[in-house]
Amino acid sequence: MSNNLLNTVSQKRIALFATLLCILILTFFVFNTPIFHSHDLSEYETIKKNCSGKQLVLFWTKFFETDDFYVGLGIKPFKQCTVFACCSTNNRNFLDVSDAIIFHIRDLDLNDMPPRRSVRQRWIFYLQESPLHTPNILYDLSNVFNWTMTFRMDSDIYTPYPVVESTPGSALELQIWNTTFNRNKLKHNVRRKKKLVAWFVSNCFTTSGREKYVLELQKYVEVDIYGTCGNLTCSHSDHIECYKMLERDYKFYLAFENSICKDYVTEKFFNALLFNVVPVVYGGANYHALAPKNSYIDVRDFSSVHHLVKYLKFLARNDSAYLHYFDWRKTPPGLSLLPRTNQGWCTLCSMLNNDSLPSHSYSNIHSWWFEKGQCEKDRTSIQKLAI
Question: Which residue ranges does the record assign to the Fucosyltransferase C-terminal domain (predicted)?
Answer without folding.
Answer: 191-368
